[in-house]
Amino acid sequence: MDASSPQNDGVLLLPEVLLLRPSALALPFTAGLGAHFRLLDPLDSPEPARSFLSSRCRAVRALLCLFSPALPVKAETLDLLPSLELVVVSSAGLEHVDLPYCRRRGIAVTNASAAFCEDGADYAVGLLIDVMRRVSHGDRFVRAGSWPVQGELPLGFKLGGKRVGIVGLGNIGSETAKRLASFGCNIAYYSRKERLHVPYTYYANVHDLAANSNILVLCCALTEDTRHIINKDVMSALGNEGIIINVGRGALVDEKELVQRLVRGEIGGAGLDVFEHEPKVPDELFVMDKVVLSPHRAVFTPESLEGVQELIIGNLKAFFSNEPLRSLVQYE
Amino acid sequence: MDASSPQNDGVLLLPEVLLLRPSALALPFTAGLGAHFRLLDPLDSPEPARSFLSSRCRAVRALLCLFSPALPVKAETLDLLPSLELVVVSSAGLEHVDLPYCRRRGIAVTNASAAFCEDGADYAVGLLIDVMRRVSHGDRFVRAGSWPVQGELPLGFKLGGKRVGIVGLGNIGSETAKRLASFGCNIAYYSRKERLHVPYTYYANVHDLAANSNILVLCCALTEDTRHIINKDVMSALGNEGIIINVGRGALVDEKELVQRLVRGEIGGAGLDVFEHEPKVPDELFVMDKVVLSPHRAVFTPESLEGVQELIIGNLKAFFSNEPLRSLVQYE
């Protein structure tokens, strides 16, 4: 009997899963996982991590990487795991995983964007309504006691009829598009390739999408191709009234350029859940009413974390049962 | 030739419309209206208003009431206008109009909720996402510089799967329901009577709706029947985790009771665009992170005001041409 067909008569017979996690992380998932898998956790061992991997993990077939963009899953780690066949990632983003390496070695990768996409889309829409309609601004205005004194808050703008360009029509982007369509927005998108069977206009590059949009919503993965995809030229094409919503990753945007344009009035507003050097946020933004600033919370709710745990367990169980993975990342 | 069939050869031949407006109101609409109608404005006359109405307006058939809930259209005014057949109101709410009186005299009333409903629904959804996902709270947290210091903001809650009870399935309520369905919310509603051909669960009273909802969204008109419709019993039925969104009128809610329950943790949160004694807002709310406070902005954008002007002119033109009114209020 091998580890892929465990009997339920002892923890040692459960399939082994190597766990990589930040040391500070409280582990809401451990209990749920421990019932199905034997977790090998270098942080539980007195051995140095590399030595633990070399000595204890040579037969490990599955690696679970928990909320750890700070823990890159790169060649130097993966080289120590000759039996590895699967990397299960608990985030939506995969910028910390060396995908080309995994592809070369035939290692399957799963992510969790399917569990995060609804919350991410809800939050993108919330940020957009907030920027357009000045919700946070109005809340500040009322709390400061300004309403009876200053009277009317400046009007915001209507969502309906606005042209929204979605950058990255993956799970989060698709859910965002579905929601914004119900507000009467006109949806277009940029993606590496055109999606069949979607009712939205496709642009083959972000510049043209920006030039034809009032609003850009950034939902794509951060890769070397998408780093600073929203650069000076794209912001210029979007125009002085344009609005940028970012629920992807901070480095999708040339943040320095964005801040300068906001200061100069060369972009209309922004709703930012992520920042290039978070938790550091550029000071200039703190005094602006046309931005909404959020501490990287778009995809996180108790419900989404429950969904992630369920998806992780589902992927690992599928793997050890030779069934199709639930959220396999497609290499392109 | 009477006033209902004017020739375009002089302003005196345009149909007369009596205008009631607050003295402080800048009139974005006057130019557009002046091309089609001769406006009789008591504020332009040195005569006292009552005397102006008695002497100048006995033949007036149409009254336009501009953004003036502070200017009640009551019997004492209407009694001075024996020829009146139409009251055109520029707001969605009609609490300042004596509808039973108008009904008795056969005076038609139009309102502008059709022009405001999309913005009102957008804002209701924005307030709900904000309360559920702590958007304004997060914005305060980041602006205060707390993110690098305090770390994680507490998680909010997912919208999908929540039971949303819409109080008043009129124009704004219907548009709100349509949007929230795209977020995966389960929609139910209370209305004076059940609507045919809507896919949402109907409750014949607000208490039962609250008992079966996680969230109440208030979109109904303020009348004597709906004043304090959200009272102690309804809040109790909604429960300690329940959320109230109000884009209707402040007096739909027993505000004192709501504030006490928020203080005691007997209601989960609230997104309030309107208040019982606005612009006065209860001080206790200013320090709460579970509420979002908004200075009565839900339905106002440049686009909605343009739509209101268009609707007002459309109703008046239809009236003077004996065509069907565009937004006739149905008496019940």
From TrEMBL, chains A, B:
InterPro entries xref list: D-isomer_2-hydroxyacid_DH, D-isomer_2_OHA_DH_cat_dom, D-isomer_DH_NAD-bd, NAD(P)-bd_dom_sf
Domain D-isomer specific 2-hydroxyacid dehydrogenase NAD-binding span(s) in chain numbering: 125-298
Record Pfam families: 2-Hacid_dh (PF00389), 2-Hacid_dh_C (PF02826)
Any GO BP: oxidative photosynthetic carbon pathway
Key words of the record: Glycolate pathway, NAD, NADP, Oxidoreductase, Photorespiration
Domain D-isomer specific 2-hydroxyacid dehydrogenase catalytic: 57-329
SUPFAM superfamilies for this protein: Formate/glycerate dehydrogenase catalytic domain-like, NAD(P)-binding Rossmann-fold domains
GO molecular-function terms, A-Z: glyoxylate reductase (NADPH) activity; hydroxypyruvate reductase [NAD(P)H] activity
Family in the record: Belongs to the D-isomer specific 2-hydroxyacid dehydrogenase family. GyaR subfamily.
Protein name, entry field: Glyoxylate/hydroxypyruvate reductase HPR3
Organism: Eucalyptus globulus
